């Protein structure tokens, strides 16, 4: 499934804001994805993948990226021989949906998980969406 499905993120924030003042909460934003081999086996871990690599892999494989509306996340399937793979990752559209939760719920801001992954659109989205204060 998605790394941080929007419906689940919203559910967690609804609970969190019921017990913690929203202006004390930073929303954790993932900046990565996972490439699973199917069928899933407990002994086989998914491989981490950067958003840029996930997008390029879809292009290289000639597959259509589907945007899951409930999770607000992109995903696709591809094959290597007879082995099926499923990739879920974050892109500009999925990140922007999470950014909107910050304003909608009155949160303090965002923090990021796994910095250093190639994600060219991320910093432009931050600059266009928030007032960045450097301390």
In short:
The chain has 135 residues and is α+β, with helices and mostly antiparallel strands. The protein has helices at residues 6-19, 51-61, 92-105, 121-129, and strands spanning 26-30, 33-38, 47-49, 66-68, 73-80, 83-89, 109-113. The protein has one domain (6-128): Chitinase A, domain 3, CATH 3.10.50.10.
How is the biggest beta sheet arranged?
5 strands, antiparallel
Overall, the morphology is globular
Please state the second-level CATH architecture: Roll
Instruction: Please tally the β strands and state the result.
Output: 7
Poorly predicted sequence stretches spanning 5 or more consecutive residues: none
Radius of gyration: 16 Å
Mean pLDDT: 93
The fraction of residues in strands falls at 25-35%
Q: Span from first to last CA?
A: 36 Å
**Helix coverage percent:** 25-40%
Characterise the protein shown here.
The chain is built from 4 helices and 7 strands. It is an alpha+beta fold and 135 residues long. It has one domain: Chitinase A, domain 3. The strands form 2 sheets. It has a 5-stranded antiparallel β-sheet. Strands 1-7 form a two-stranded parallel ribbon. Strand 5 (73-80) and strand 6 form a beta hairpin. Helix 1 (6-19) packs parallel to helix 3 and helix 3 packs parallel to helix 4. The chain is globular and about 50 Å long. The N and C termini lie far apart (36 Å). The mean pLDDT is 93.
